[in-house]
Design a protein that fits this description.
Elements: E1 18-19, E2 26-27, E3 39-44, H1 48-60, E4 64-70, H2 73-83, E5 87-91, H3 101-104, E6 109-114, H4 119-127, E7 132-135, H5 140-151, E8 156-157, H6 161-170, H7 183-193, H8 198-205, H9 209-223, H10 228-237
Parallel strand pairs: 3-4, 3-5, 5-6, 6-7, 7-8
Antiparallel strand pairs: 1-2, 2-4
Helix pairs in contact: 7-9, 7-10, 8-9
């Protein structure tokens, strides 16, 4: 398997890698874009042990090479811009902060990794532009196979998620009680009905908190609701939400 030469580093660093201080970012020193060589990957998650475990597993897999790792979204974006990997394997919670990735790195394909095995996980990954979604507990061989598939343009869902996604796509949508809202605004309203904060909504939908605030403002305007509590109550009256029904006083 072809390997790219890396610049030697100081005695306290991992041989063949450049470590940027205490940021948790590790990178090679040159872009890895040759499609005839190994599939290059950037791994990004806010858990250093998870990142290191995935890096080790992928570097041992035939045909794969981890070009860099990052423990926050800004470092992940910088690495993708600098190294042009074929695949970014990123924690689902980071994708909301990587909204500019498709514009700045259109050739990079994203594979999301998360703990949520419910609908919010894989739909959040799809809406964030990911080519696939794996659960955190996926086997190393499953992760390596998924990275390879995504690099070749395939869509991958692990952990038995594919049947649920297919069922969602083939089930006719129910008529919305709020037809003036966009699909995204309807998703926001559903979560308001459950009493979720902007930060919680942002994590579930892989959006920046500022983006969620803008959507909430649009929802309140369209519903002529004076507050998010009033909007939530109207949504509950219309059958939205899954938590215990709020009681009007």
């Amino acid at each position: 398997m072809t390997r790219y030469k890396r610049t030697p580093t100081g005695p306290q660093e991992r041989p063949g890698r450049v470590c940027s201080g205490n940021t948790g970012k590790t990178e090679t020193t040159m872009p890895m874009t040759d499609s005839s060589g190994p599939i290059t990957v950037v791994v990004a998650a806010d858990q250093p042990l998870l990142v290191e475990g995935i890096r080790s597993a992928l570097d041992q897999a035939a045909g794969l090479h981890v070009a860099g790792t990052a423990c926050d979204d800004l470092d992940a974006l910088r690495l993708c811009v600098r190294l042009s990997p074929r695949v970014l394997l990123a924690d689902l919670a980071m994708l909301g902060a990587l909204e500019s990735l498709p514009r700045r790195c259109p050739a990079v394909r994203v594979l999301a990794l998360g703990a949520d095995d419910g609908e919010a996980g894989f739909t959040g990954a799809l809406r964030a532009g990911a080519y696939g979604y794996l659960l955190n507990g996926s086997r190393p061989s499953e992760i390596a196979a998924a990275v390879t598939s995504v690099a070749h343009g395939q869509v991958v869902f692990g952990g038995g998620l594919a049947p649920r996604l297919l069922d969602r796509l083939t089930t006719p949508p129910a008529r919305s009680p709020f037809p003036g809202l966009t699909q995204r605004e309807h998703e926001i309203l559903e979560r308001l009905a459950d009493g979720r904060s902007n930060a919680e909504i942002a994590r579930e939908l892989c959006l920046a908190t500022k983006t969620v605030r803008n959507h909430v403002s649009n929802v309140l305007t369209k519903l002529a609701a004076p507050s998010r509590v009033d909007a939530a109550l109207r949504a509950r009256d219309a059958g939205l939400g899954s938590r215990p029904v709020l009681t009007r006083v």
